Amino acid sequence: MKRTPKLTVRAHAKVNLDLRVLGVRSDGYHELRTVFQTIELHDTLVCAETPGPFTIRCRTPNVPLDASNLIWTSAAALWTALGRAGDVRDTTVAIDKKIPLEAGLGGGSADAAAALVALARLWGGAPMTLLRELSTTIGADVPFFLSGGTALGLVPRDRSSSLWRFHGRSVRVVRRRPRRGSARGARAAVAPRPVAEPRGADDQRSRAACRPAPSGDLRP
């Protein structure tokens, strides 16, 4: 019996160690400066070659299984970039969802980046330069998830720069079940304002957020 080619990849969540709204652009988007950090929490994607239309499978409620899912966007962008005609087909992506939905942990973008890498391998390979270029068309956070780690991100600009990585330290994350809502809606609650301080000052604060806290016991 012929074995179906498939790949299993992890899509790690992220936290924002520092997040600053710098202002509102003329197009209505908020310009943000943030420090991204990937964490151990992750979804697992299994990408397999299967005959028929492109399919996304997931048992978690409220996960979109159609073209509104960023995995579908990644697949369609890569399919076209590789010169394949028509709609994406003959592939299934199964998601084991562990990253909570709409919790600000980047689950959708992480899945999109992981799918981009896995499908490139499944479909015969593609250079990382192409994947990075495609990622900028999929979502503002997707380029970061191609490399992960610690990075200074400028959103909605499609670039990020690496910062110090944590060595010998652990980051503990306490998750409070949030009220569901979109990140865009949360940013819209911030009143538009001009940037009051030089960008250099914000850079220093963002970098300071990455420095580990002093070790030792807490005292009352």
Tag the structure with descriptive keywords.
single chain, 220 residues, alpha+beta, Ribosomal Protein S5, domain 2, six-stranded mixed sheet, 6 strands, 27% helix, 30% strand, disordered C terminus
The major beta sheet can be summarized as: 6 strands, mixed
What global shape is seen? globular
Please trace the helix and strand order, writing H or E for each element.
EEEHEHHHEEHH
- The percentage helix is 25-40%
Low-pLDDT runs: 164-169, 193-198, 213-220
The CATH class is identified as Alpha Beta
Question: How many structural domains does the protein architecture include?
Answer: 1
Looking at the overall shape, the CATH architecture is: 2-Layer Sandwich
Content-based structural category: alpha+beta
pLDDT averaged residue by residue? 80
* Spatial separation of the terminal alpha carbons: 67 Å
As a whole number of angstroms, the C-alpha radius of gyration is: 19 Å
| CATH fold node name | Ribosomal Protein S5, domain 2
Strand coverage percent: 25-35%
Description:
There is one protein chain. With 220 residues, this protein is α+β, with helices and mostly antiparallel strands. The protein has a single domain, classed as Ribosomal Protein S5, domain 2, CATH 3.30.230. It is 27% helix and 30% strand. It has helices spanning 70-81, 107-122, 128-138, 142-145, 183-188, 199-208, and strands spanning 6-24, 30-53, 55-58, 89-96, 150-155, 159-162. Strands 1, 2, 3, 4, 5 and 6 form a 6-stranded mixed sheet that branches. Helix 1 (70-81) packs parallel to helix 2 (107-122). The relative contact order is 0.20.
